Amino acid sequence: MSQDRFELLHQMRPQTSLDAVWTPVEQMAVRERILADRTTRADSQATSHTKPRAQPSRPRRRKWAALAGAVALAVVAAPGVAAAIDVINDGMRPQSILDAYGYWNDNLDGAVDPGTATRAATAPGPYGGIFSVLTSTNSEGQTCIGPVFETAASAAEPVPNDFNDGGSFCHSAPSTADFGFDTLMTTNTAVVWWARAGDAVTGELRTLDGERYPVVEVEGYLFGWYPLQSMKPEDRPTLTAYAADGSEVGSIRI
Fold this sequence. Notes:
It is a single chain. 15% of the residues lie in helices and 30% in strands. The chain has 254 residues and is α+β, with helices and mostly antiparallel strands. The protein has one domain. Strands 2, 3, 4, 5, 6 and 7 form a 6-stranded antiparallel beta sheet that branches. Strands 1-8-9-13-12 form a 5-stranded antiparallel beta sheet, with no helix packed on it. The longest helix has 23 residues, at 24-46. The chain crosses the membrane at residues 64-85.
């Protein structure tokens, strides 16, 4: 294994498509821990009477956890894990899209400007609001995607200005993967989910009690939401996906 700490850090970095998930603050904290390791070991070997120097702690922002099909550690991100911004109050709140998705500019595969985001799809949302899926693409073809809950008044504006972020991710091309579950997130407004669309162009989310919730397709993914509630895995709603000719592509629990 290489003894060069910067080379080691480069080898440990996650997939470039997931750089938006790994914020600059987290990257800095990881670099400090790795580079400090050699100094700490040297100090420990110099004298058995001197304790290794503690590294100063860096305050961390509170984030909503993303539940996915793979486990993600603090250093190495995994597919299906999305980033979410801090939420001060329950539900939607006035905020700038530039602040909410500013980390898109730190995408190592090419900065993506959240200020140029547009609504790729919209559907009825909770609390009389709108569920929107935003996209923004740079000149290199990198696209960042972010579902949001916004007020009806916000939805009438060019970009959201009164909303609750539902996470985001970036990629270099629309998904062509087979239909299947991808990501589930819990926000203060509702549960947000997305799934790989495969051959599907739309779908329907239905709960055990018969309630139905909208589904939209963007960039090869199906997106949707359902109300916050505590439920066992077997009680979760079922997503049924449909192809353009109306045939069923498949169904999964969300």
